[in-house]
TrEMBL record:
Residue intervals of the EamA domain: 165-296
Family according to the record: Belongs to the EamA transporter family.
Primary localisation category: membrane
Protein source organism: Streptomyces phaeoluteigriseus
Name listed for the protein in its UniProt record: EamA family transporter
Region (Disordered): 1-23
Spans through the membrane: 30-52, 58-79, 91-109, 115-135, 142-159, 165-183, 195-214, 226-243, 255-275, 281-298
Gene3D superfamilies linked: 1.10.3730.20
PANTHER family named in the record: EAMA DOMAIN-CONTAINING PROTEIN (PTHR42920:SF5), OS03G0707200 PROTEIN-RELATED (PTHR42920)
Membrane-protein topology: Multi-pass membrane protein
Length: 313
């Protein structure tokens, strides 16, 4: 998978890096592929909203540490990746993938600790969108970039008290998301099945755990905190990867990528229902512009190659 092939603005990494073995299709098949994708998107965004409620107990860094640790344990137990037979370059790739994953999660959770969830996801999705625009090299993508910039302008103007540091964290998380897409593809080529994803998640957990301990200390050992942290990991990582992998067995990657462009809207809904974060008319218009830009960029990729690869929290 080349860099240009990983440019669709999506979240899913399981398509390239693999994921945990999924349940039998019959268990989830009644939902249909579109329903599976929507369920995965709802899961990851409501997991993010749950993480925000956990932050007063464990801190942003503590929540990320718990999410990565639990997800790593689940993936390692289920996948049981082998550790021998890989080159130094293979291990270097998976380590960079793990670092990128940890940075993406850490920066995003710092953002949602400061700004509304829907706003954070809208800013974050600009990273994959920028990657898609850059590698496509088509004039039409300048239109989509312009729409996205208009959305960001409205978002900044519509939220007078938007924390600039929170916005910076979200934008930087978007840059890490773009890097994540690239390295998920490289890891997927070097490691079979979900082995690369499981090992990268373990790398990220090991690197981030000291930060979580420094910030939260023994609070991480509280049973309620551990339980909520495990729920965040399942909702934001394990369950979405499984549902989306099942969906991609029956759903064209181009359709999947377009559906993933709805992430900001799902995040805004989760923020409203769980965190009581309401949207103004201008904020809603800004999110709609970014969603339209993401969908447009994906459609341009489809028109150019016929079928983009949908790479991804």
């Amino acid at each position: 998978m080349s860099t240009s092939e990983t440019a669709a603005p999506t979240r899913q990494s399981a398509t390239s890096a693999g994921t945990a073995p999924a349940p039998a299709p019959g268990r989830w098949g009644a939902l249909g592929p579109v329903g599976l994708v929507l369920a995965g998107g709802v899961s990851v965004q409501f997991g993010g909203a749950l993480a925000v409620t956990l932050m007063p107990r464990a801190g942003a860094l503590g929540v990320v540490a718990l999410r990565l640790l639990v997800a790593a344990v689940v993936l390692l137990v289920v996948c049981r990746p082998r550790l021998r037979g890989y080159s130094r370059a293979d291990w270097g790739t998976v380590v960079v993938f793990g670092i990128t994953m940890a940075a993406m999660n850490g920066l995003f959770y710092q953002a949602v600790d400061r700004i509304p969830l829907g706003t954070a996801v809208t800013l974050e999705v600009l990273g994959p969108l920028a990657l898609s625009v850059l590698v496509s090299r088509r004039a039409l993508n300048l239109v989509w970039a312009g729409l996205a910039l208009a959305g960001v302008f409205l978002l900044g103007g519509g939220v007078g008290d938007l924390d600039p540091l929170g916005a910076a964290f979200a934008l930087t998380a978007g840059a890490m998301w773009a890097a994540y897409i690239v390295f998920s593809g490289r890891t997927g080529r070097r490691f079979p099945q979900a082995d690369g994803l499981a090992l990268a998640m373990a790398v990220g957990a090991v690197l981030f755990l000291p930060l979580g301990v420094v910030e939260s200390g023994t609070k991480l050992l509280d049973p309620v905190t551990l339980g909520l942290g495990a729920a965040v990991a399942i909702l934001s990582s394990v369950l979405p990867y499984t549902l989306e992998l099942l969906a991609l067995r029956r759903l064209p990657a181009s359709t999947f990528a377009i559906m993933m462009s709805l992430e900001p809207a799902l995040a805004a809904a989760a923020g409203f229902l769980i965190l009581d974060q309401t949207l103004s008319t201008m904020e809603a218009a800004a999110i709609a512009l970014v969603i339209a830009a993401s969908m447009g960029a994906v459609r341009t990729q489809v028109g150019r190659r016929g079928r983009p690869v949908a790479p991804e929290v």
